Structure formats: structure tokens, C-alpha cells
């Protein structure tokens, strides 16, 4: 417990609805130089949206237009720190949705055109994660990988990207369906990142959460520009250099819905964190699911596939159409303070 408390005492900022990764008023960031964000609406309100632009200033979908993988040496001339040459294939773009120590449940709006980040709404109310002692909000920088979808697909011909009647099957590893969402990432570096920031991460391992009968993969990763990134190569290094963090992660996901009156979450593999190799296979599979979806070779349900840069996708739109979509979003101010009161929850063991 003492190791865990040392880990959690890193000077968490005062409670705030959102820590933004917009380009205005911030210093240069290696990965952030390629993508910028634009706010619409008021933070801590249901009409708030955070849209993304590429380096040329054109609107894009962060879910579909930001590439999954990072260039092996540099991206648009912007170098990235690397630990070893053989880790080039383990570098991915991560979209930060929720900064560490914050409570507002921000997420990519998969059902809206261009998939901006918004705050999740449930039963007509903005969603905030509870503070469960000794944790404060999210204990990592939380986000997602682009172009990766936990929507398991199958084909009666056992070949990829065919059209079939039932696009869903149970994950062979967990015996549960996917949750039809982008794959989640817990970034464990030392810095507090910003909502909307795009960072380069290397994957260390993965946890299989079973959320209401669906597989909800949680990748464990570290920002490659973190001062300690060179120490981390696989899941065992997390316990070695950040003792207690994996245990805290397991407990956090097990308990975080209990204050809402729900039972504790369950895990596949008895809560065992799988290694990097296993995680990379999961990412590969989820990327194939996304490809099938963007090529209209499976039914994604309510997922909005509008994109600007996927040239062979039937869902591609023009830059002018993307601009019109953003401009159609209302940005009226909301004077009400919808930030949730900060309280501690003490759960019996």
C-alpha cells in the first residue's frame, strides 16, 4: 500500500472538468504538432465537442483519419525518441480522452460525424467517474488507439473483408462479444497529458475486462517521450519499475462502477495482465475489424464512419463537407456549472 500511495501522490491538480490539449496557449509537443483541436460548446455541458484538425488546418476524424501506427523514424519530419530499433513496430498513436486524476468521462463520439470528443451522458446526466479511496479519478492518462475497433467479425468463408449476415462472434480468448468501441489505452507515464492530445506510445501489455458480458480490452502503454520510457519493454517492466501500479489498475477497474450501485467487474484470464505479444495480436485483430467497417464490408450499427483521408472508403467526405459538419454544431455558451461535486467513496473489502 505504501508503494501505491507514493505512486498516487504526484501533486494532482485541483478538480477540473477538463484539461485541454488545444494548440492555443500551450508549448510545442512532438506529436501534438501534427494535430490540433477546436472546441465547440462549453466544457462540462452536454453540447461540448472537441473537434480535430490535421497539420494543414483541415478537419478530420480522430477515430478514422489518424493512423494507427507511427512512422518508424519520424512523422512529417518530427523525430520521436526511441529506445531500440526493434521497437519501431510497437509504436502507435494514442488519442488522450481523459487526463490522469480527472473525473469527467470524455470519449470519442463514435456515433457522430467526424467523431469529436464529448462527455459521456447517461440518463440525461453528464458522467463522472467516482473517487474510490485511495484513488482520485482516473489513475492513468486514458484514451484510445485510432483505427482499432473491438467489434469482432467473422465470415463463413474464413476470409477477411467479405460481406456476411451476422458480423459478430465471440472473442476466442474471452468467450465474450466485443463492446463495439475503440480499444482503450491506459498510459502510465509520469506526465499528466491533455484531452485531445495525440501522443506516440509503445504497448506493454493488456487486460481483458468483462463489462456486462462484453470484452473491454485495456491496453497498458507508455508515452515514448516519457523520461523513463526506455526502461519499459513488456508488461513485467511495469511491476519492476512502478510496483503496485498493475494491482491498482486491476482494483480500479474492478470497483469503479460499485458506487453507481453495480456489481464488481470481472476479468478474463483471472485478472492476469497479458504480455506485449498478446496485446499486439489483439490490436492487429481490432484494426482488421476497423478496416472491414470503413470499407462497408460489415455492419457497424450506429458507428459513424465519415472520414476525410481514407481514399478508398465509401464514407469519405470532402474537406468542405467536413467543415460544414463542424459548423453545424451549436456552440452556444452554457452558464450552468455541471461539474460534479468531489466526494470520496470508501468501499468495504
UniProtKB/TrEMBL annotation:
<dbReference type="GO" id="GO:0071344">
    <property type="term" value="P:diphosphate metabolic process"/>
</dbReference>
<dbReference type="GO" id="GO:0045202">
    <property type="term" value="C:synapse"/>
</dbReference>
<dbReference type="GO" id="GO:0005739">
    <property type="term" value="C:mitochondrion"/>
</dbReference>
<dbReference type="GO" id="GO:0004427">
    <property type="term" value="F:inorganic diphosphate phosphatase activity"/>
</dbReference>
<dbReference type="InterPro" id="IPR008162">
    <property type="entry name" value="Pyrophosphatase"/>
</dbReference>
<dbReference type="GO" id="GO:0004722">
    <property type="term" value="F:protein serine/threonine phosphatase activity"/>
</dbReference>
<comment type="similarity">
    <text>Belongs to the PPase family.</text>
</comment>
<dbReference type="GO" id="GO:0000287">
    <property type="term" value="F:magnesium ion binding"/>
</dbReference>
<dbReference type="Pfam" id="PF00719">
    <property type="entry name" value="Pyrophosphatase"/>
</dbReference>
<dbReference type="InterPro" id="IPR036649">
    <property type="entry name" value="Pyrophosphatase_sf"/>
</dbReference>
<keyword id="KW-0378">Hydrolase</keyword>
<protein>
    <recommendedName>
        <fullName>inorganic diphosphatase</fullName>
        <ecNumber>3.6.1.1</ecNumber>
    </recommendedName>
</protein>
<dbReference type="GO" id="GO:0051881">
    <property type="term" value="P:regulation of mitochondrial membrane potential"/>
</dbReference>
<dbReference type="GO" id="GO:0006796">
    <property type="term" value="P:phosphate-containing compound metabolic process"/>
</dbReference>
<keyword id="KW-0479">Metal-binding</keyword>
<keyword id="KW-0460">Magnesium</keyword>
